[in-house]
Input
Amino acid sequence: MTGDGGGGVRLWFRFRHSLLDLHSNGSYNLFTIFVILYLTCSTSMTHVHASIHDYENETFIHRSNSFFFHGGSEGLYASRVPSFNDTEDNSLNGKSFIRFESITFRRTKKSAENKNTMQQKTGLVEAIIVQVKDRNNIGGAYLNSDAICCTPEHADSGSCKVGEVIIRQNPDDPGGPKRLQTFFEGKNEETKMVLQTVDISSTGMYYLYFMFCDPELKDTTISGRTVWRNPDGYLPGKMMPLMTFYGLMSLAYLFLGLFWFLRFVQYWKDIIHLHYHITAVIGLGMCEMALWYFEYSNFNSTGSRPIVITLWAVTFTAVKKTVSRLLILVVSMGYGVVRPTLGGITSRVYFLGVAYFVASEALELVEHLGNINDFSGKARLFLVLPVALLDASFILWTFSSLSKTLEKLQIRKSMAKLELYRKFTNSLAVTVLLSVLWIGYELYFNASDPLSELWRRAWIIPAFWTLLAYVILLVICILWAPSQNPTRYAYSEETGDDFDEEVVKLAGSGIKVSGDMSIMLERKDRKALVAADHHVFGGHGEDKEEDKRE
Output
C-alpha cells in the first residue's frame, strides 16, 4: 500500500477505495461527476449495507508488510445499556454491538506442513475494529515507519510485538482500536474464531479488518459472518433516519391522495384524461413510500434485506420515476389543454418511457440488491450512463415543449391557460435551480467526507430528491385540480386549440401569413353566423351543411 508518511495513511487509502470507488478512479473529471449526479437526481444512492456480513472463502489482499480483508463498515450508535446480556432476545434492546459468528480461517496445505506439530501457535490472524477517527492509530505512522505489521526493530523499542499489527492505544479513549486474535495450532489447516461479541460504547463509523503478518499464511481464506447491530435494530446508522422519513412520506402521499380523491369525486363530471395520469402518479408514490418503509422496517428487524419486498420497492420506484417524467413531459406538451392527443409523437413518448424504465430498473436493482462496492467505476458508469442520457432527453424535450406551448397560448391570447402554464414554468425553473444548488452541496459533501465521517447527515442527500419529486407533484395537483370550471385549462375546439403548429412557428419567427390567417378568421366568422342562425331559428340541418362545406 502506498502512502505519504505511515500506516495510518495507508489504511486511509484502503478506506477510500472501499467506500468511494467513483472518487478513487482517476478517469473521472468533475464535469462527469456533476452531470451524472444532476441527470440521475442522485436517486437515493443507497448502497447495500447488510447488517449481517457473510464471507464465503474470501481471500486476503497484500499491502505493505501485511495481508488484510475488509470485513465491513457501518455507522453505529453507542449502546444505551451499560452491560451486555445475550441470553434473551429482550436483552438486545438498546444494545449496539458487532458479533463474530462461525468465523473460520483456512490456510493452504503447504503452509500447514511447514509448521511444527508440537507448537501450539503456528499462525496468527487478527480482527481489527477501528473507528475512522482512530485510523492514524493503525500502523507505524507515529513511529515514522511505513510498516503496518510490527518488525523486530519496532519490537526492540517496546512499541509492539513481532508478528502483530501495530496499534497505538489512545489513553483518552480506552475503547479505541480493538484487537481480537485467533491462532492456528500445530499443522492444522483450519482454525475457528471464538464466538464473541464486541460492545459498542462510542458512536462512530466503524471498520472491521481481518489481518495477518506472516507471509507463510498467504492464500489463507475466511468464511463465516459478522452481525452488526444498532441500539434500535439492525439497520445501519446511515440508513436509520430514512425509515422514519419514508414513513412520513407515506403519510404525505396519503393526505395528497385523500385531497385528490375528494376533488375527483366532487367534480367527477368534469374530469379530463390528464387527471387520471395524475391519479396514477399519486398511487404509485403512495405504494413506493410504503414499500420502502416496510423494506427498511424488515431490514431493521432481521439484519438482511427482504428480497421480495426490495424487488417490489425497486420496481415501483422505477415505474413511478418513469410515469412522473412522462407526466411532466405531456403536461409541458399541452396534453389535454392545447391538444386533445399527442398525435404522431405518441410512439416516441412511449419508447422513451419504456427505455427509461428498463435503464432505471437495472440501476436500482444493482444498487439495492447487489453490493455496489463490488463494481468498478467503469462498470458503475455503464449502468448510470443510460439513465443520465435518458434523463437529459426528458429535460430537453420538456423545456422545448414548454416553450412551444407558451408560444401557442400567447398567439391565441388564451390568457387563463397562459397564466396556468407560466406558473408551471416558474415552478419547474425553481425546481431546476434548487437541483443545481443541491448538486453543488452533494459534490462538496462527498469531496469533504470521503470516509463517511458525516454519516449521520448522509440521509438528507437521497431524502431531498424524494421530497423534491413530491413537491413537483403537489404543484401539478394544485394547478390542475378538478374544478367546476374545467374549461379554464381543458382542451376546447371553439377556442381554436387545434391551431396548426406550423402557423405558430411562422408567427413566432415574425413572418406574416395573412392568407392563412384570413382563412382561419373567415372560418370563425362563418361559425359565429351559423351559431346565431341556430339560436334564432333552431335549425339543425343548415348547421350540418355549413360544417360540411367548411
The chain has 15 helices and ten strands. The CA atoms of residues 74 and 294 lie 21 Å apart. Strands lie at 52-59, 61-63, 66-76, 97-106, 123-131, 178-184, 190-192, 196-199, 204-212, 221-229.
